[in-house]
Amino acid sequence: MDPLTQGVVGAMLPQASAGRRQVVAAGILGGLAGMAPDLDVLIRSSSDPLLFLEYHRQFTHSLLFIPVGSLLCALLLYLPIGRRCGLSLQRTWLYCALGYATHGVLDTCTTYGTLLLWPFSDQRFAWNTISIIDPLFTLPLLALVVAAARSRRPLLARLALVWALAYLSLGLWQRNVAQELGQALAAQRGHQPLKLEAKPSFANILVWKVVYENDGVFYVDAVRSWPEPVIYPGSSIARLDPGRDLPWLDPASQQAFDIQRFSWFSNGYVAQDPQHPERIMDVRYSMLPNEIDPLWSIELQPDAGPLAHVDYLVHRDSGGGHLQRLWQMLRGEGDSVGESRPGGG
């Protein structure tokens, strides 16, 4: 999630468990600790552009690391905040632990993937119930957390907790509806998906991106799950086959290994960019949910040496056209159909 949401949720849980006299300190400590795990973005390498993909949402987000990470936060925050607010080191650690513990779980509710069970598993858990940015989730929480601090009323933080759980539960239900629509869409095409995922589109849990694989091809569509199902057909693209798509690539080269790393990060949803054959893209993410245009990709160099890494590219063309079309989808308007048609490819 975005840093604001992580901080607000991190503040909410300690506030909800604190007494009236400690609700402000609990919120500050929990908010700062709730954002702390994302300091892993500082783990980067100038020579290896994919290093941050391996370490972001890794050990700092693991359930096993919560006691360690929260203790580090408590030691850093005790003198400037905890002690000044009359808290013991133990109480400071408790509020930091509650805030820190929310981070990995909240991130797992998004689509990016979180290594909750590190170091025992390298599986990236993603429950796909909420967008990385969702104002309808965050703003009510922010208002309640601020009000709880100003009024010294932990009850308001508990109401925020109820809202958070209710919204995430609603997202889970909407995700299941979107997956059912995706399965029905695949059946209409005569497909039996090898795997299928539904992911919330930007800043909402109403319009979902459905991606599934059938016979080595990814199909990408959008569905609006409520109040009545609306389908926005997309297109399709072949799954990456390095031997077929990149015949020049040395399987023993660093670039070939980087493709494997990127595929792990992308949960196998990788394809060759038809507009830029030297680029490998993550099919799961796009500005519009029924499009394949990637938000990020890696770029290979055919003339690179055996030890050269790929480049990592971010594509964020968030022009008004995209936002307008997404708004039309949210309203159930635009190029929708009752029966889907297969995309090309």
UniProtKB/TrEMBL annotation:
Database matches in Pfam families: YdjM (PF04307)
Give the InterPro entries listed for this entry: Transcription_regulator (IPR053170), YdjM-like (IPR007404)
What's a Gene Ontology MF term here? Answer: hydrolase activity
Sequence intervals crossing the membrane: 63-81, 93-119, 125-148, 155-173
Which of UniProt's keywords are assigned here?
Hydrolase, Membrane, Transmembrane, Transmembrane helix
Q: Which domain of life is it from?
A: Bacteria
Name under which the protein is recorded: Metal-dependent hydrolase
